[in-house]
Amino acid sequence: MSRFFTASIKKVYEISLTRRLLIFAGCSGVAFVLSILTIPTSWGLRFHFFQYAIFLAGSILGPVYGGFVGLVGGLGPAFLRNDPYILLYNILLGAATGLFAYRFRPFFASLLAFFLVHLPVMLIIGIYVQNVPVVIMTTISLILAVEDFICAAGADATAKGITRWLKK
Predict the structure, then answer these.
(1) DSSP code of 42?
(2) Spatial distance between the Cα atoms of 33 and 26, rounded to a whole number of angstroms
(3) Cα–Cα dist 147/21, whole Å
(4) Per-residue confidence band for 166, with pLDDT thresholds at 50, 70 and 90
């Protein structure tokens, strides 16, 4: 384990438990509400932005809290779409964001988590396990890429202010 990684873990645990749990609860609530609120399009597709809270929790609190926020945020879509794999995707998204956030700023950590972890796992499970046609998986991937880009930018913009508050 590198010195940088160990130092970053120590920074997370320098935040009081009360503040960590407060941010965790807030991000979990925001993720759950945003997962149910979707923006329909004329093409029959729906946009959702609950990844914002997953990226924020992972970036500020690390991989464990990020993964748990991913779990809570994925509950709504998993039950609404009857797809339990959504829980796995979002747990991995939050945990990977937390791991990448030790080395990169939140925007890049979030996008790396999406493109290097979330997207490949989703494509493999969708195409080979669930037998979803490649055209549909490609469409879903493109929509998620746009959503995650927007959510990563939002998490990056708010993470600095929240981190400053946490260190008080």
Answers:
(1) T
(2) 11
(3) 26
(4) confident
Q: Quick one: CATH architecture of 16-166?
A: Orthogonal Bundle (1.10)
For 40-45, the CB contacts below 8 A with 24+ separation are: 45/139, 45/143
Is the distance from CB of 75 to CB of 35 less than 8 angstroms? yes
Whole-number Cα distances in Å, 115 to 42, 57, 109, 118, 166: 27, 18, 10, 6, 29
Domain assignments of the chain as residue spans, ordered by start: 16-166
Residue 12 CA to residue 19 CA, distance in Å, equals 11
Using one digit for the tens of pLDDT, what is the confidence trace for 103-162?
898 899 999 999 999 999 999 999 999 999 999 999 999 999 999 999 999 999 998 888
Distance CA 124, CA 161 (A): 37
